[in-house]
Amino acid sequence: MAGQERIFKHLEFIQTTISRKAQNSFTYKGWAITLITAVLALSDKNKTCYLAAILPLLGFWALDTYSLRQERLFRKLYDDVRSKQDTDFSMNTSIFNHVVPSFFRTLFSTVTIGLYIPILLLVIAIYFLKAA
Asked: How wide is the angle at C-alpha 20 spanned by C-alphas 68 and 30, nearest 5°?
């Protein structure tokens, strides 16, 4: 029975990490939208501010991508631990690096580009509209 309790505790730790990564991703998206909206609202006719909004957007996109990839790695670890009868109490996800898409592929996954590309295009469009 002690072995089962140990596996359940290990799964609980992994699930907590997955939840934290998912919360981080949600927070990054919220901050990106808030910050870009604030920059666009406060930059009256200064075109440079519009371009300056792109830098934090790219930063949040990268953070969100990193968090999403980490979440996927921990989901693989969870599945691996769940399928075994006895396992060491490890949180090492590096063995799944070849299974989970790379950072670059995750950067352009539908989950991330569905938010960040439209915002990026909106900022660029506003920049050129203000130039006219």
From this structure: 65
Count of beta carbons in the 10 Å neighbourhood of residue 37? 12
Helix, strand counts (H, E) of the chain: 5, 0
Q: Look up the pTM and report it.
A: 0.88
pLDDT 10s digits, 30-52: 999 999 988 888 877 677 777 88
Domain count, the chain: 1
- List the alpha helices (DSSP H) in 2-132: 2-42, 47-52, 54-83, 103-107, 110-131
Contact 53, 36 (CB under 8 A): yes
Which domain does 20 fall in, by range? 2-131
Length of the chain measured in residues: 132
